[in-house]
Design a protein that fits this description.
By secondary structure, the protein is an all-alpha fold. It has one domain: Up-down Bundle (Ferritin). The longest helix is centred in the first third of the chain and has 30 residues.
Length: 177
């Protein structure tokens, strides 16, 4: 059984993950409206990934026979000043999530909840990748803000959408659809 304090914090994290998914949809819609299909596709894919992170957490709580709280989330930011702003917001969000995940690991460790701590290890690794990816994208977007097609070219080259899945990823509730 997962520690009560960990369960409470993981339920909070589920809300953060769903909110991140919503924000990435808003980013994608913004880029779609600007006819930047690669940036839009990148953020639509990120939205699905964040949603699946939430569903992995849901599945863990179900497996641990713990209460699951599916939260409502605040509306995402939908107006952006320029092509850079959504990516900058996304990097800030990924850094915040990294801190939240690290804090969750800390709670599990403090509570002696070794199964929950082990469950969170994949998310620690994932956040390193997410921050690195978003940091690189932000650098490209900042350099290419006056020529967004260079950003599109970068995404075609560096993020071809291979669809590879990580076999070490936790199972998501309802499957990784």
């Amino acid at each position: 059984m997962a520690a009560t304090r960990f369960v409470e914090r993981l339920n909070e994290q589920i809300a953060y993950e769903f909110a991140a998914s919503q924000q990435y949809i808003a980013n994608a819609v913004h880029y779609d409206a600007e006819t930047l299909p690669r940036l839009a596709a990148f953020f639509y894919a990120q939205a699905l990934e964040e949603r699946n992170h939430a569903m992995m957490m849901v599945q863990y709580l179900l497996d641990a026979d713990a209460d699951v709280a599916i939260p409502g989330v605040a509306a995402p930011e939908t107006s952006f000043a320029d092509v850079v702003a959504p990516v900058s917001l996304a990097l800030d969000q990924e850094r915040r999530v990294s801190d939240q995940i690290a804090a969750l690991v800390g709670v599990a460790r403090e509570e002696g909840d070794f199964q929950s701590e082990q469950f969170m290890q994949w998310f620690l690794k994932e956040q390193v990748e997410e921050v690195a990816s978003m940091s690189a994208l932000l650098k490209v977007v900042e350099r290419s803000a006056d020529d967004p097609m260079r950003i599109e070219d970068y995404l075609v080259r560096e993020h071809p959408g291979s669809g590879d899945t990580d076999p070490t990823a936790p199972t998501a509730a309802g499957g990784s659809v």
